[in-house]
Structure formats: C-alpha cells, structure tokens
Amino acid sequence: MTEAPPRVVRTARRGLRPFEPADEPAYAAIRSQPAVARFLPGGEAGAAEGAQKAAALVPAFAALWDEVGYGPWAAVEAATGRLIGHLGLR
User: pLDDT tens track of the chain, all 90 residues?
Assistant: First the structure.
C-alpha cells in the first residue's frame, strides 16, 4: 500500500496546503490579473472570469483532497499565510 502524500508542506518562506473556502477572494484576485491569467487555460481573456473561475475551482480543488487524497495545493507565504497562487500536477 502506498503512503498518501502530505497534506501540508512548510518551508521557512512558503507553505503548501489544500485550498479552503476562505481562499476564494484571494484566488479570484490572483486569477483576475491578466499577467497571471496568460499562463492559465483561456489565457489573458480568462482574467475577466477570474472570480467565477475561483468560485468553481476552490471547492473543486478542496474536494479532490477528500475524494482521491491529493489535489492542487494553495501556495502561501509562511510568515503571513497570504495566498500567492496554486501548484500541483495533473
């Protein structure tokens, strides 16, 4: 039996953890930036839908951790806990 990946990873400067409902406003702000959206599916045009995408993705990302034991991580600053993005493998 394989061991489940860790749910939380911390370093001195960054932290990785599953998404939480409270992350939605910060994630919407991140996805709404054209400079960020250009690297996401839909490109810069997707920045206009940042809030709608965040509203759908935050709960979906969180649910994956419960359903399959892993999912995209919320990347946060360790000192403040401020959401700075997401990462993971598909």
Answer: 667 667 899 999 999 999 999 999 999 999 999 999 999 888 999 899 999 999 999 999 999 999 998 899 999 999 999 999 999 876
Query: Hey, what are 82's tokens?
Result: 């401020």
Nearest to 73 by CA among 90, 85, 59, 56: 85
Token pair of 76 as six digits: 């946060």
Q: Write phi, then psi, for 83 (nearest 5 degrees).
A: -70, 130
pTM reported for the whole predicted model: 0.88
Query: How many whole angstroms separate alpha carbon 59 and alpha carbon 66?
Result: 11
